[in-house]
Design a protein that fits this description.
The protein is of the alpha/beta class and 419 residues long. It has 14 helices and 24 strands. Bound molecules: ligand EPZ.
Length: 419
């Protein structure tokens, strides 16, 4: 198992290019199943989760080729296996995103139930309810979702709880369904809009993405597409927080302030000086005086749950007290007990973590438990005195492309070790 060794106390200074968004690329890759024509994608991040999705698509018969300019070319003309097996789905829950496309184009799918993960039970009942509402026959048997449909029918489906991948699955089901589908209480994340842009590029008839009401009129066939995936807003926020906690200065390129306004406003409240342009964001924290900031996670455009662990680390050494409320997932504070080992003063009561800033954290061996928790531990280690060893770093490789290389570019002392 690989570990990261970080010698803390160095200011992050420099420039980093932000990669393509994992949580946009995953549904867009799944959507390649909807057409028999060539799909060409740019700015797909090189991440373990992306590799898993590609392996899954190839197991179904999708041809996938990375060309020398790192463009990803796919063709689903010869899909002959409509199954997403447990051994792949258990490593990457977002595999559930092939369910909608398979039922929509082929009228049949057998997808392993994703099961829970470190941060929560992660049920997919809303995905199933939506497809049933569109006329799919679905049974859940032996740990698999078995779905069949002659032709999905457009429907008005209201999500009783906002679900990002749930919205994405129903969107992908609706683009080839008969008639009009209206999705209400839809997720509004930028990744939803990116998927909609990609589907429109393929010839889908979609409007209202980015609002709570999405209207889709089914078409008979979809074409190919040539598309560039949006920037990763969580990677962007992670490097901004890492720079803030170390009192550094950073310029992030290939990203956009519009993707994470709630995060930028919290960083300004914490004392960071932030400027932004068409495709860049800069943060300067060299004048110091980091102030603790309270927040409460909520669906977009609220404060993102995927940035909660990073701000837990920031608040642990910021001046003052803060209250951090996690409203999306039931078990997303596992990084806090690891931060305690580094000297953080954070008390958890239910879904609220209350922090009191300490002067400094001290290095300790810690363990990553999930993707964004590991980002929080890296941020804490960058600020801590001494050498922190973070174990189970495979979690970080799921969502952060070339993480030690980008940190080294910023002056961090970080290395990957095999244990
Ligand atoms: C997406 O997960 C993201 N993953 C997550 O990012 C992100 O944390 C989450 O949205 C919230 O923004 C991808 O996009 C691949 P949800 P998703 O369905 O779609 C409940 C990361 O770090 N719910 O919006 O699985 C659910 O339990 C990952 O990159 C149901 O009850 O999240 C949760 O409490 C972590 N039934 C809430 O809704 C359902 O059928 C929101 O979940 C579906 C969801």
């Amino acid at each position: 198992m690989q570990k990261l060794k970080i010698s803390g106390g160095k200011k992050l200074v420099g420039e980093v290019k932000i990669s393509g968004a994992k949580n946009a690329a995953l549904p867009i890759l799944a959507a390649s199943l909807l057409s028999e024509k060539n799909i060409s994608l740019n700015n797909v991040p090189q991440l373990n989760d992306i590799a898993t999705m590609i392996t899954l698509l190839q197991s179904m018969g999708v041809e996938v080729v990375f060309d020398d300019t790192m463009r990803l070319n796919l063709n689903a003309r010869n899909v002959d296996r409509l199954i997403a097996p447990y051994d792949l789905v258990k490593t990457m829950r977002a595999s559930i995103l092939v369910l909608g496309p398979l039922v929509s184009r082929f009228g049949s799918a057998e997808v392993s139930l994703p099961g829970g993960c470190a941060i929560g039970a992660r049920p997919v009942n809303l995905h199933i309810d939506g497809l049933r509402a569109m006329g799919a026959q679905i049974e859940v048997q032996d740990g698999y979702i078995k779905a069949s449909a002659t032709k999905l029918q457009g429907v008005h489906f209201n999500f009783k709880e906002i679900s990002v991948t749930g919205t994405e699955n129903i969107m992908m089901a609706a683009v080839l369904a008969e008639g009009e589908t209206i999705i209400t209480n839809a997720a509004r994340e930028p990744e939803i809009v990116d998927l909609a842009n990609f589907l429109r590029n393929m010839g889908a008839n979609i409007e209202g993405d980015g609002t709570h009401k999405i209207i889709i009129n089914g078409v008979n066939k979809l074409n190919g597409a040539d598309y560039r995936v949006m920037p990763d807003r969580v990677e962007t926020g992670t490097y901004l927080v890492a720079t803030a906690i170390t009192g550094g200065k950073i310029l992030l390129k290939n990203t956009s302030e519009n993707l994470l306004e709630s995060v930028l406003s919290k960083l300004r409240e914490a004392g960071a000086e932030i400027e932004a342009g068409e495709d860049w964001i800069s943060l300067d924290m060299q004048r110091g005086n980091l102030k603790a900031v309270s927040f409460s996670t909520s669906p977009y455009p609220g404060f993102p749950t995927d940035m909660q662990a990073q701000f837990c680390a920031l608040n642990s050494v910021a001046n003052g007290e803060a209250e951090m409320v996690e409203n999306i997932f039931e078990n997303r504070f596992q990084h806090v007990v690891e931060l305690h080992r580094m000297g953080a003063d954070i008390q958890i009561k239910g879904n609220i973590a209350s922090s009191k800033g300490v002067d400094s954290l001290t290095a300790a061996p810690v363990m990553a438990t999930d993707l964004r928790a590991s980002a929080g531990l890296i941020i804490a280690a960058l600020a801590a005195e001494g050498d922190t060893i973070i174990d189970r770093i495979y979690h970080i490789d799921r969502g952060y492309e070339r993480v030690e290389e980008k940190l080294q570019q910023l002056g961090a002392s970080v290395s990957r070790e095999n244990s």
